[in-house]
Write a structure and sequence with these properties.
This protein has three domains: 121 residues, Rossmann fold; 178 residues, 2-Layer Sandwich (Dihydrodipicolinate Reductase, domain 2); 78 residues, no CATH class. Helix content is 36%, strand content 25%. It has 16 helices and 19 strands. The strands form four sheets. A seven-stranded parallel beta sheet has the order 3-2-1-4-5-6-18, with helices on both faces. A hairpin with a 2-residue loop joins β16 and β17. α1 packs parallel to α15, α7 packs across α16 and α15 crosses α16. The longest helix has 18 residues. The N and C termini lie far apart (56 Å). GO terms for molecular function: saccharopine dehydrogenase activity.
């Protein structure tokens, strides 16, 4: 009997588990969902003939290997730092591995061994990265097929709150890993614009937000996302004048978050004893400890920050952190999980926009594609759908013998995206496209 092992049953795994329940029943595949929190895994699995939930301490090698040994395909939805533990076991035990996370240096170092074993390790198979790669590559191939010469590439993506559930000043609620929300932008960014390489450090990321005029929703902006340049060659666009990947947020969010970054509230180095510390007291303590009392007073009295501060507990003296000794980033994360929590019937929204400028028969052309997915509720989110479905589809294709690549890959290969994108469309994940001369 063929089998799939999923490590991780967190926020982004909900729709993936539902999809695996569906395909396992149709194909009589065994699925195991392993998580440190057995209760969470059991709640998402429910009663199912082909899917079971188990508890695991992922750091324990014997537990990992026992589960991996029984699987044909392993999906890791663990925090990125833990993927390599699973990857090493998959290599030893000769199992295919799928993740939604970026390819890191550790994974690159074992690329030759993965190929030698005839295995597929498919990374960046989620939303962004993931669906962005597949959809962009398909568009690029179509433009080049008709003789177009691409001159500029922009890809914007963001997980946001749906307009009907947007009721805080930041226009944001947490629908995915909250740590990633707090640490967003911390790696800085580098991209190419008008034949110039541009580097932005973390302190300035959120002050470099640009209005997203092409979106169908008003008030949005974008900031540069990580290292765009690493994808230029993989996309076959090494010579384009502009290549820029970005993250979408609302303008109010970027303006407010810039102040939090400036104040070092996302620092992992600064430590606090948060037991008995209210949200308001934490903010005051932080600014005092870092000798930023003047900045605290300045931020507190900025008219444009009043509603934003209210919505992150700046003045909340009644709610306590109680996380023991932890970093400023961990304390802020706890606060935001409390203040920006999705309510049961809240809906999130995933928005992705590609803009490709190209020359065709002497004319300047613009091809635009927009993906907008609205979640059902706080459990079945658009984020979980768009992150999880590509992984589930890839696992299904592997077990059916239709996904034939081996080696370390991200989904930029036509064999991958030509198989996966039509199946995503059947699940309601599809783009609206337009082309015009400019």
């Amino acid at each position: 009997m063929k089998s799939i092992l999923l490590f991780g049953a967190g926020k982004s795994a909900t729709v993936l588990i539902e999809y695996l329940k569906k395909v396992s029943a149709l194909n009589h595949w065994q699925v195991t969902v392993a998580d440190a929190n057995l209760t969470v895994a059991q709640e998402k699995v429910g009663q199912h003939d082909w899917v079971k939930a188990v508890s695991i301490q992922i750091e324990l090698e014997a537990q990992r290997q026992q589960l991996i040994q029984q699987a044909d395909v392993v999906i890791s939805m663990l925090p990125p730092a833990l993927h390599f533990l699973v990857a090493k076991d998959c290599l030893v035990l000769k199992k295919h591995l799928l993740t939604a996370s970026y390819v890191d240096d550790n994974m690159k170092q074992i690329a030759a061994e993965i190929q030698q074993q005839g295995l597929l390790f498919l990374c960046e198979m989620g939303l962004d990265p993931g669906i962005d790669h597949m959809s962009a590559m398909k568009m690029i191939a179509e433009i080049e097929k008709i003789g177009g010469t691409i001159t500029a590439f922009y890809s914007h993506c963001g997980g946001l709150v749906a307009p009907e559930s947007d009721n805080n000043a930041w226009h944001y609620k947490i629908s995915w890993n909250p740590r990633n929300v707090v640490m967003a932008g911390s790696a800085g960014a580098v991209y190419k614009e008008n034949n110039t390489t541009v580097e932005i450090d973390y302190k300035n990321i959120f002050s470099n937000c640009t209005p997203l005029k092409s979106a169908t929703i008003p008030g949005l902006c974008y900031y540069p996302n990580r290292d765009s340049l690493q994808y230029m060659q993989q996309y076959g666009l090494s010579n384009v004048a502009t290549f820029k990947r970005t993250t979408i947020r609302y303008t109010d969010y970027c303006n407010g978050w810039q102040w939090l970054v400036k104040a070092n509230l996302t620092s992992e180095a600064l430590q606090y004893d948060t037991d008995g510390l209210s949200f308001a007291a934490f903010f005051e303590t932080h600014f005092s400890k870092t000798n930023q009392q003047q900045l605290y007073q300045h931020i507190t009295h900025l008219p444009e920050m009043q509603a934003l501060l209210q919505d992150i507990g700046w003045f909340d003296t009644k709610t306590f952190i109680n996380k023991g000794v932890c970093s400023a980033a961990v304390a802020l994360q706890f606060i935001l999980e409390n203040k920006w929590a999705m309510q049961p019937n809240d809906k999130d929204m995933v928005l992705m926009i590609h803009e490709i400028e190209y020359l065709l028969s002497g004319k300047n052309m613009l091809h635009k594609a927009e993906l907008k997915v609205i979640g059902e509720n706080a459990m079945h989110t658009a984020m979980a759908k768009t992150v999880g479905l590509p992984l589930g589809i890839a696992a299904s294709l592997l077990l059916k013998g239709e996904l034939l690549l081996t080696g370390l890959h991200i989904p930029t290969h036509p064999h991958i995206y030509n198989l996966v994108l039509p199946l995503l469309e059947k699940e309601g994940v599809c783009f609206n496209t337009s082309t015009q001369s400019v």
